[in-house]
Specification:
heterotrimer, A mainly alpha, B alpha/beta, C mainly alpha, A: mainly alpha, ABC transporter involved in vitamin B12 uptake, BtuC, two-stranded antiparallel ribbon, 4 strands, about 0% strand, B: Rossmann fold, Rossmann fold, 2 domains, 7-stranded mixed sheet, 13 helices, 20 strands
Chain lengths: ~575, ~450, ~350
Amino acid sequence: MQTKKISPWILTLRSGLVGGAVAILISLVGMVAAFSERFIVSGWFTMGQVLFLAPILLFSYTAVRRIAPQPSWITLLGGALTGLVSGALLAVLAFLIHAAPGIRDMFDKASFQLLEVLTFDLGVPNGLPGLLLISIVIGCLAGGEYLLPERLRRAFITGLVIVFLIGLLRDLIMTVVNQWVDKAKSFPDWATWSAPILTFIQNFFRRQIFAASGLKPLSAIVLFALISGLNYWRSGKPKQVRKPVAGDPRARTRLILRLSGWGLVLLLLPLVLGIFFAEILDNVGLYIMMGLGLNIVVGFAGLLDLGYVAFYAIGAYTMGVLTSPELGFFNLTYWEALPFALGASFLAGVLLGLPVLKMRGDYLAIVTLGFGEIVRLLALSDWLRPWLGGTQGIQRIAQPQLGGLVLNTQVELYYLFLVGIAIVAFVAWRLKDSRLGRSWMALREDEDVARAMGINHVTTKLLAFATGAIFSGLAGTIFAAKLQSVYPHSMNFLVSINVLSLIIIGGMGSIPGVFVGALALIAAPDLLREFAEYRYLVYGAVLVAMMLTRPEGLWPEERRKLELHEVEEVIEETAEEKFAPLAGTTD
Amino acid sequence: MNKKFFTILALLVLASMILAACAPAAPATTEAPPAGTEAPPAEDPCAADAIGCVDIAPGDPVHIAYGLVIAGPNESLGIDSRNGVEIAIDDVGGEILGHPIQFDGQDTGCNAETGQAAGTALAADPTIVAVIGTSCSSEARVALPLLKDAGFVVVSPSNTAPDLTEPGSENNHVPAYARTAHNDNLQGTAAAEFVFNELGFTKAATIHDGSLYADQLRQVFERRFIDLGGEIVAQEAVSLGQTDMSANLTAIAAGEPQVIYFPIFMPEGGFIIRQAKQTPGLENVQLIGADGLFSPEVIEGAGEDVEGFLVSSPALAGDAYTQFLEKYEAKFGTGPISIFHAHAYDAFMIIKNAIEKVAVQEEDGTLRIPRQALRDAVHNTENYQGLIGTLTCNETLELAGTVVKNPGDCGAAGVGVWQYHFGDFEIFTNPEVFWAPGD
Amino acid sequence: MLRNWRQRITLTDIVVWGIGVSIGIVIVVGTITTLISEKYSAATWLDLTVKGLALGGVYALIAMGYTLVYGILRMINFAHSEVFMSGPFTAVFLANAFSRSGFLDRQPVISMVLVTLLSMAVSMTIAVLLERIAYRPLRTAPRLVPLITAIGASFFLQYTFRGLYGSGFEAYPIPKVLQGSFVIGSIRIFSTQIVVILGAIAMMVTLYAIVQWTKIGKSMRAVSEDKEVAALMGIDVDRTIALTFALGGISAGAAGILYALLFPVVNFFMGFIPGLKAFTAAVLGGIGNVAGAFLGAIVIGLIESVGPNLFFDGLGIPTPAQMKDAIAFAILVFILIFRPTGILGERLAEAKA
C-alpha cells in the first residue's frame, strides 16, 4: 500500500470538489426541488436545502478527519475551505441556470425553482454570495464538530438528527395524534373528562410544536436542547454492567414482559394508525415475508438469486388460477388453494435449482434473473392467456375467510400478515441453527470443502431454493388475495431488487436485519411521497455505500461480520507488524 | 430510576392505545350539529344521505383531487387533463359557493399497481369531495373500488374502456363513477366504419399492447370490421418496453393487410410506425392509431415516417372550444399536448354544478355536501352544455347495433380521424382533422 | 466404460439434460413446421437475417466490454448496461443542443462526429469512475460483495439518468445522410444497418488488435492470468484494470449510439435487456474471449431476430414476438447446461488453489 504524503490543502480541495459534485448531482436529479416544499423547521430551512447542504457538511467533515491531526485553527480553516469549494461549485451551477438557457434545456430539472432553492429565495445577486457564506459556515461547523470532545459531539449529532427526523415526519406524527384525539372524542361518557386534556394536547402539537409544515423554530430549538442535553447526561453516567445470569427468573419475566409488550403494540398498531398506515404496514409485511425467504437463499446459503419474483408470481398466479371464477377451472377457497400454491412454489424452487447447481455465483445471478423474466413473460403472453389471463391478469381472486368474516380490509390483512410472518420467522430462526442451516452456511463458505465433508450439495441447495420459494409463494398468495387480482406487470425485476436491497441493507443472513431493512426501505418511500421517484436511486447509492463501508448490514449476523472484516483485520495486523519499527519517525 | 420512568411511560402509551383502539370508530364525516343552530325545518339531508356529509367549515377549501398520469412516458395525457381542470377553476373564479378550491392529487402511472397506491392515498383523505381521474382504464379498474368505498364521486376525463360502464360488469361503479370521455365501443365502431367505408380497405391487421384499453378497443374494432364484411388477417401483441417490432411486423406482413390498427401508447407506437416502413411488404400500408397516440411524442418518436399517420380520436369543435384553446395557450404557453383537456374541463364543471345543486349552507357558514346526493346529481346531469358538446350522463345510445353509450358515459364528442404530418405538433394543424363524423 | 458413466450420472443430471433436450426438440419441431408451412418467403428470412446481423453487431460491442472485465476481474459488471445507455443519452442531448443552435445543420458531419466522440468519452468516464469508486476498494472482498455493489451501481446510474433527463422517451436524431436504403436483390438494406454492421466489425477488429498485439493488451492479458505475478513483473495493475474498463466503456458507448441508430428512441431503462442479452452472448461465445463475444453476439442477434417467427409460428403459438426475450434467456440456460465454457471456450486462468 502506497502512503504518499498529500498536502492537507490538496485534500481539502479534493473533498470540496467531490462534495460539490455530489451536491450538484443531487440538485440536477431533482431531489432538491422535489423536497423544497417540505419544511423541517418552518420558515428556516426545507428538506430540499438539507439535501444540498448535507454533502457539503459530510465532505467537510471527511476532509477535516483526513487532514488530522492539526492545530484547531487549521482544522476550522480546512473545513471552511472545503465548504467554500463545494459551495463555489453549487454557485456556478446556480449561475449557469440563471444565465445559460442551454443548461435549462438540457437538464429539465435545472429550473428556476431549483435556482430559488439554491439561492435561498434571495435572488441571484444576493443569493450566490449567501450560498458561499452558508457553505463556509457549514464547513466551519464540520471542523468544529470534529474538534468537540466525544461526548459533546455525540450529543450534538443525536440532537440534530432527532430534531431533523421529527421535523421530517411531522405529517406522520400529526396524523397519529389526530387519530388518537378523534377516537378519544367518542369515548364512553365516564371518560369525558379526558376530552379537554386531549384537545389541549392536540392543539399543543398542532400549534406550538409543529407549523403547517415542519417544526416551529422555537420548538425546534427547545427540542434540540432537550434531546442533546438528555443524551449528554445519559452518556455521562457510568454504564452499569449487568451480566445476564443464566436462569435468572427475574430476567426471564422481564423478557416475557418486554416481548408481550411489543406483541401488544404490534397487534394494536394498525388500529391506532389508520388505514393509510395500515396499507404501508401491509406492504412492509409483504416484503418482510419475502425478505425472510430470500434471506435463506442469499444470506444462509450464499446463492444470489435475482429472479426471486418468479416464485412470488407463481404463488400469486396459482392462487389466482385456482380460485378465480373468471377462469372457471376450479373454484376453491383461499385456504383450499393455499397448499397447492405453496406446492407449486416448492416445485418451482426445485426446478430452478436443478440447472444452476453447478454454476458459479455470477452466472447463478444472471440465470436466476433470466428465469424471473421468463416467468413474467409467460404470464404476460397471449399464448398462455386462456390459462393465465394474459396481460389483463386474473380478477376476482378469492379472499381468505374465517367463518363468516372475509379478510379484505387493510387492517384485517395486516393480522394475516402478522400470523404469516410469525410462522415464517419462526421457521427461519429454527432452521438457522439446525443441521440444515449449518450445511447452508458451510456451502456458503466453501463449497468444495463442504462437499468433502459429506454435505450433499444437491439436496442442500435445492432445499434452500425451495424454502425461499415457499416463503415467497406465501407472500404472493396474500398479495393476490389483498388486491383480489394479479397483473403480470407487477411481477417484475424491480420487486426482486427491492427484496435483495432490504436484506442486504438490513444484514445478510440476519433475521432481525430483514425487519430493519424492510422498515427502512419500504416504509420510508411510502411515508415521504416525494421520495418515491428517487427510490431506486437511493437504493443503489445506499447499496454501494453499504458494501463499501459496512457490508454486513445494519443489524448484522455475527458470523457474517467476522467473515467480512476478516481480511481487513489481517491486513491491519500485518501492517501494524510491518510498520511498528517505524513508529516514531516522521514522514 | 430511568427504567421505572420509561416503564411508566410505556404503560401510559399502551393504555391510551388500548382505549383508542377499543373506542368505537368515529366515522370521519359526520359530527353532531353545532350547538346553537336551529335544525333546518326540512328533513336533514345529511341524516338521510346513505353515505353521509362532508362538512366544510367557513374559510376551509372544497377539496377536489385528481388521480392522473402526470409522470412517465405518457405524462402528457394526465398533465393535459390537469391543465384543463385548472382553466376551469380559473373560469369559476377559484371558488365554489364561497369556499376556495383546493386542487391537488396523485400520479396514477397508467398501470394497475401505481393506480392502487394512488387510490389508497386518495381514499385515506376524508376531506376530498370529488376526484377527477383516472387517466388510464387499467388504473381505473383497481382504483375505483377504493375511491367508491371512501365515498367520493369520481369523474374521469379519459377512461374509455367499455367495461367501466357496462351494465353488469365487475368494473362498473356507476353512479359513484362517471366519465366525460367517449366509450370505446363508439371509437372502435367509428374506426372500423371509417376504414371500411371511407378508405375502402377490406383486409386489416391489429396490434395491442396488453392494456385493458388497447385490448378492448381493438376487439370492438375487429368485431365491427368483420360485421361490415372485412377480414382481420393478423392479430399481434407487443409488450410494454419492446423496441424491436420486427417479429410482429413480419408476421403481419405475411398476411398482406391494407391497414394496421394499433390503438396503443408511446413509445411502442412510435417504433411500429418507423419499423413498418422498414418491413418488406408493409411500406405502403396505412397505419392507424387511437387516442393514446395523440401527443407530441408521436412526432418525436416516429420522425419523418409519421407523415400520413392517422389516429382515431375525439373530434372537437365550436366557439367555446376555440376560446378555451386561447386560454390554454395564454396560461401554459403552449397548445394542448393531448386530446382530453376539454373533457377534463367539462368533468370539473359537472362536479361543480352538482355540488351547487345539493350542497346545504348552514347558518354559520359551514357547507355540507351529502355524498350520495352528490353522486346522484352527477349521474343525473342532463343536457349540460359543455365544451365537448351536450352532456347527459344517464342515457343509453346505440349505433349500428352496438351500445355506444351507457349510464355513466356523459360524453358527447363524436370520434373523428386526425392526420399527422412531419413538423411541430400543433393541434388542428398537425395533426389536423382528416374526417369528422357527419362528413 | 459404460459402467463408469452410469456411476457418475445422477438424477439431477438426467433431469437437467431432460430440460435441455426438450428445449431442443421444441426448437427443431417448430422450425420444421414453420418452414413447411411456407408462410414466409425467402426474402423475408433474408430481411430478418440482416436485421439480426445488425442487432448482433450492437450486442457484440457490449459483450466485448463484459468479457474483458470478466476476464480481468472475474466479475460481471452489472452496471455495464448503464454505461451502454449513457452513450446515446448524452448523444441525444448534445445533438439536440447542436440542432437548436443551428450547428447541426451548418456542419452535419463535424457535429455528428463530435457528438459521437463526446458520447463515447462520457461512457468511458462513467466506466472508469465506476471502477475507481465502486470496484477498486472491493477487490479483495468475497464474491458476493462486488456483485451486489455492481447491482447497486447499476440502479444508481439508471435512476440518476432518469432524474437528470426525465423518465420520458427522447427521440434520437438520425442524420439525413444515414436515412436512405439500398435494394440488393429482393431485400432492402438500410444505411443505418450497414453503418451498424461495419461499425461493429471495425470496433471488434480494433479491440482484438489492441488486446492481442499491443503492450497494453499484453498487460491486460497478464493481469487476467495472474494479478500478483503481473504486479511483480512491474505492471501497474490498477492502471491496467482502469484501461480495461475504459476500453469496455468506449465500446459500450459506441454500441449505444449504433443501437440508437436502429431504434431511435432513448430511455433510461433501455440498457437493461440489451445488457442481459449481451452477457448471454459473451457466455455463449466463451467468457474472456473477445472473438467469442463477437461470435456469440451474432448468434444471439440472429436467433432473436429470426427465432420467434421461425421456432414458434409453426407450433401455433400466437404472437410469438412476446417471447423474444425469453428465447435469449432460454439460450443462456441451454448453453450453461450443455457447454458452460461456451462455443470457443473460455479464456480464463485456472482457479488458483
